[in-house]
Amino acid sequence: MNAVIDTSATVPARLEGEFKTLLAKTFSSEPEWLKEKRKAAFDSFCKASLPTRKNEEYKYTDVKKVFSGEFTSVYNEAHKLSLDFEKLFVEKNSVKLIFVNGWLHKDSTLSAKLPKGVIVGNLATDGLLIHSGFLKKYLRNDGDTLSRLNAALWTDGAFIYIPENVQLETPIEILHISTGKKEILASFRHLIVAGKNSSVSVIENNISVDLHSHVIVNFHTDIFSGEDSKIQFYRLQNDCKMVSQITSINVLQEKNSRFDTNTITLGRAWARNNLNIALNGENCESHLNGLFITNGNDHVDNHTFIRHNKPNCRSNQLYKGILDGRSTGIFNGKIFVERDAQKTNAYQSSKNILLSDAAAINTKPQLEIYADDVKCSHGSTTGQLNEEAMFYLRSRGLSEDSARNLLLFAFAGDVIEKIQNEPLKIYLEELISQRLRK
Amino acid sequence: MLSIKNLRAGIPGNEILKGINLEVKAGEVHAIMGPNGSGKSTLSSVLAGKENYQVTEGEIWFSPPSPRGEGSGMRRKNLLEMSPEERAREGVFLAFQYPVEIPGVSNINFLKTAINEIRLHRKQPPMETKDFLKLIKEKQALVELQGTLANRSVNEGFSGGEKKRNEIFQMAVLEPTLCILDETDSGLDIDALRIVANGVNKLRSKDRAFVVITHYQRLLDHIIPDFVHVLSNGKIIKSGGKELALELEAKGYDWIKEKDQT
C-alpha cells in the first residue's frame, strides 16, 4: 500500500495521496466526526505548509531538511523486538504501554489494578472503540502547523483519564520505539485528562532500536489539568539515533492545578520540543525543566511558551545544556502575561556549558507583559567548565575525565533534583553518568 | 624528598620565580615566608602543577620514600613532567589558600573518587565502603570537622575556617608524603588556627615532609618548622632555623630586603 513518492513536490502535495490512502484504509472505520476533523487539520496544514527558517520560531531548526527524504506515512508492520524491556522501564509496578513507530505494540493495562473509572490505554482502540464520545470532546486541531499535521495523520498513542478525586499512585510508563528499515513519518499522539482533585505521573521514554533508516516522529500531546489536579509528565529522549523528533505538548491548566514536566534529551538526537502551557485559572503552578547532553551533530531545540491568563499563578523554568562536538542547542522561552494576570510570578533560567569550540547554543528569552503587578525574571548563562574547580579536583588525584564528569554531573543534577519520582531520579542519574563517561 | 633547582617560572611576560633552590628531606618542616607578591603562591601552584604557570628554567625532583623501603633514590620523579593528578597520586598535596567551592559535588563522593583513583594508581583494590566511612570519621575528628560538613557540597557555604579545616581533613584522608600548605592561616581566628595546626602536627612523621607557606609568623608558633626561608622578589634570600621567623616578625621584611641589597 505504498504510495508513489515524488520528492520534488512540496511536502503537502506529496502527503496528499498518502492521506487519501490512510482515510480509505487505516482510518476507514473511524467515526465520521474524526475523519472530518482529520480532513480539516490536513487542509489547514496544507495552507501553512512546513515552517521555514524565515519563521522566527524556526530560525535555528531546519524542519524542511528533516522532511526532505523519501519518507512515507503509510505503513504498519509488525516488528519482532528482541529487547531487554526491564532496562527500559523505571518501575516494576508501573502501568506500561509500548508503542512501535506510532502503533501500539503491547501493554500491561489489563493486568494493572487501577482505581475505578481510571482509563489507561491507547487512543486507537481504548479511545476510539470504547470512549469515542470522550475523544470527540477532547481531541483538538490546534497548535502549530506540525501539530495540525499530526492531527491529520496520528495513528495511535496513550489515552489516560483520571476521574475526580483519584490519586493514581502507580506511575504510567510509555515506551516509544523507532525501528525498521523503512523511512517513515510516524505520527504519535497522547491525550491525558486529569479530573478535579486528581493526580497522575507519566514517564515517557523514546529510543531507537535496530533502525536502518531515518524516521521522523511527529508527536503531539494534549494535557487537560482539572481544578486542583496534579500532573507530572517526564519525557526522556535517549539514544534516538537516526530519529528526528518533533514534539509538542499543549497543556490547559484550571485553577489550583500543578503541572510538572522534565524533558531530558541524552544525545544522538535531533529534537524540536514545544511546550505550550495555558494557565487558565487562578493559583496555578507550572514547573518546566529540561536537560540536554549533546555531542556529534546532535541538535536539540527547546521552545516553551507559558501564557499567564489569570492572576496569582506561578511558573518556573530551568533548562540546562551540556554541548560537545559540533552539536547545537536552542532554548527559546516565552512568558506571556495577560492584563488580568496580576500577581504573576514567572521565572526562567537557561544555563549551558560548551565543551567544544564547534558546539553552539542559542538562547532567547521573551517576556510579554500586560499586567502591572507581576514578578518576572529570566537569566541565561553559557560558559566552559570551571577551570579552578577542575584543578582543585585534579590536585586531589582525580583524572581529568573523572573531574570533568563530577562537575558535569553536578551541573546536570539541578534539573534531576526537580523530579519528584525517586526511582526515575535514580534511573536518570545512572543514565546520565553513563552518558557522560562516553 | 623534594629538590628544587634554579626554578624560574611565571605567566607569559612576567617572570615571578627567579631561580629558586630548595632541598626538603623526609620528616622535615620548611616554612617559606615572604611579603605579598614575593612569589609564595606561585611556588605552591607550580609544585601542584597548575597549568596557568609556565616554567622557563630549572628542575623539580620528587623522591617519595619507597613503601617497601627500597631507598628513595629509586623513585625519583621529575615533577614538571607530571600532570596535577599524577603528582597527587604520587603523594603531593596542596592545601589551597582559597579552596574552591564546587556546588553539587559532595565532599564524601569527591574524596571516595580521589582515594580510589589514587589506589588504582598504586595497583591497590578500591576501598571497601565501611573502611572508607571509618577513615572519614577518624580523620574528621582530627580537625574537629562536623559530620554534616563532609556530606555537603565541596566547600559550598563553608566559613573561611571550615574551608581550611576541610583542606587539612582531605590531607589527612589522602595521606600524602609531601604536604604544601599555602597560607593556611589566612582568614583563621585563633581557635581555628589552633585546630588546624593540631591537625597538621598529628600528621607529622619521619616519612612525610611539609612546606608551610605563610606571610605571618603566628602559624609557626603552632607548627614549629625545622627551617625557615625568606622569599623575596622570586628568590630565597635568606634561610635559617625557626628563630629566623621570630626575627622577621620583630623587624619586618624590609630589614632583610635592605640587607640583601647591600
Give an overview of the whole structure.
The complex is a heterodimer of chains A (438) and B (262). Chain A is α/β, with parallel strands linked by helices and 438 residues long. Chain A has one domain. Chain A is built from ten helices and 19 strands. Chain A has helices at 11-24, 32-48, 63-66, 85-88, 123-130, 132-138, 145-153, 387-394, 400-417, 422-437, and strands spanning 95-100, 103-107, 119-122, 158-162, 172-180, 184-194, 199-211, 215-225, 230-238, 243-253, 258-266, 270-279, 285-294, 299-308, 314-323, 328-337, 345-354, 360-369, 375-383. In chain A, the strands form two sheets. Chain A has a ten-stranded mixed sheet with strand order 2-1-5-7-9-11-13-15-17-19, covered by helices on one side. Chain B is of the alpha/beta class and 262 residues long. Chain B has one domain (2-102, 177-261): Rossmann fold (3-Layer(aba) Sandwich), CATH 3.40.50. Helices cover 39% and strands 27% of the residues of chain B. Chain B is built from nine helices and twelve strands. Chain B has helices at residues 40-48, 84-90, 107-121, 129-142, 147-151, 160-174, 190-203, 219-222, 243-261, and strands spanning 2-11, 14-24, 29-33, 54-62, 77-78, 92-95, 102-106, 153-154, 178-182, 209-214, 227-232, 235-240. In chain B, helix 4 (129-142) crosses helix 6 (160-174) and helix 6 runs parallel beside helix 7. The radius of gyration of chain B is 18 Å and the shape is globular. The mean pLDDT of chain B is 89. The A-B interface holds A 386, 388-389, 391-400, 402-403, 406-407, 409-411, 413-414 and B 48-51, 83-85, 87-89, 93-94, 96, 99-100, 102-105, 109-111, 113-115, 117-118, 121, 153-154, 170, 174.
Topology, number of strands of chain B: 12
DSSP helix fraction of chain A: 10-25%
CA-atom Rg of chain A in angstroms: 21 Å
Distance between the termini of chain B: 34 Å
Low-confidence sequence ranges of chain B: none
- Give average pLDDT of chain A, whole number: 93
Strand percentage of chain A lies at 35-45%
Count of discrete domains of chain B: 1
What's the CATH architecture of chain B? 3-Layer(aba) Sandwich
Tell me which oligomeric state these chains represent: heterodimer
Main CATH class of chain B: Alpha Beta
According to CATH, the fold-level topology of chain B is: Rossmann fold
> Structural class, judged by helices and strands of chain A?
alpha/beta
How much is the average pLDDT of chain B? 89
* Percent helix range of chain B: 25-40%
Number of DSSP E strands of chain A: 19
Return the string of H and E elements of chain B. EEEHEEHEEHHHEHEHEHEEH
